[in-house]
Protein: Lysine N-acyltransferase MbtK
Amino acid sequence: MTFTFRPLDPLKDAELVHGWVTHPKAAFWMMQDAKLEDVERAYMEIAADEHHHALLGLTEDGTPAFLMEWYDPAHRELVGLYEPRSGDVGMHFLVPATDTPVHGFTRSVITAVMFHLFEDPSVRRIVVEPDVRNTAVHALNEAVGFVAEREIDKPEKRALLSFCTREQFEKAVTA
Structure:
């Protein structure tokens, strides 16, 4: 599957994203009780933040298919929780719940997200911090080359700090 990316428009895309982030299957996104205005506000804050970015992943026909965020872990999310290296980029992704799941779709999404981030030659390592209970995403992360380092306590959750270098990713997706 081939995807393209575009910046999320906090006002234009808020209704779509609101449906995604408040769905029961998106519990680990931690926006279950968010109102439309909360989603607009959250993504307006991200849009104004030089260290945090939100993108929509689009199918070949331009249909929004998933949400991706990337951030500078030296300035957001993981400040004080690990020692960031030059070239580190933090990442989150959300595939919306569907009544007609496509086998392998989520794996295609995370692979596309990783390729997209590694297109920037300055990116050397991708950092993720999913909830320790989110075993499905741990398996996906491992499939694309992430190696879990340790559990950390964030204000909102206990997280599994994991890293993936460009080399680990390339080895995982060409294996």
In short: The CA atoms of residues 58 and 64 lie 4 Å apart. The two ends are 18 Å apart (CA to CA). The chain has five helices and seven strands. The helical segments are 14-21, 36-47, 105-118, 135-143, 166-174.
